[in-house]
Amino acid sequence: MRILIAGIGNIFMRDDGCGSFLAEALEGKVEADVQDFGTGGISLVDELEKYDIIIILDIADINEDIKVFEVNDINEDDIVQTVLSMSFGGSHGLGIEDILTILKSKGTKVKIILLTCKPKILNPGIGLSDECLKNAFLAIDELEKILKQFNVKIDRNEIKEALISRIRRIR
Fold first, then answer.
1. pLDDT (tens digit, 9 = 90+) per residue, 16-51?
2. How far is 41 from 33, CA to CA, in rounded Å?
3. What's the pTM value of the predicted model, to 2 decimals?
4. HEC string of 7-44?
5. Who has greater pLDDT, 34 or 78?
6. End-to-end Cα separation, the chain, in angstroms
């Protein structure tokens, strides 16, 4: 079973970089492939098709500090929205939702899990707000629970220390 943990985000827009920072902290510390996809793009579809399970780390406009949900089927509205995104923004302007819609519309049987953090600051700058860092720690705890289902172990404390170290270096 091939598992990918994919960080999504723009590290130059403060908390939007949360997924990317988490991926960097996980690198070499988990028995799964870990990649920072930054802001993505259509080229991700071919890469993502290689996996059985994809866990996406990203921020989202949610009410909770963190939220986990599985991407199941797509509907006609999702496809229409993706086509509009490509028509008006080109394939480089596609968001992760569009990428997942394309992936699912191809009939790929990959299991996709979104692990999202609530952001506090989304403006130019590098690093995470204290609130988003706290949420990132919660996401690491939740990631451990998710990976446990697939018999993959992680050392939460080591990953949290790596995240703190990275954030301190850029502040």
1. 999 999 999 999 999 999 999 887 666 677 778 889
2. 19
3. 0.85
4. ECCCCCEHHHHHHHHHHHHHCCCECCEEEECCCCCCCH
5. 34
6. 38
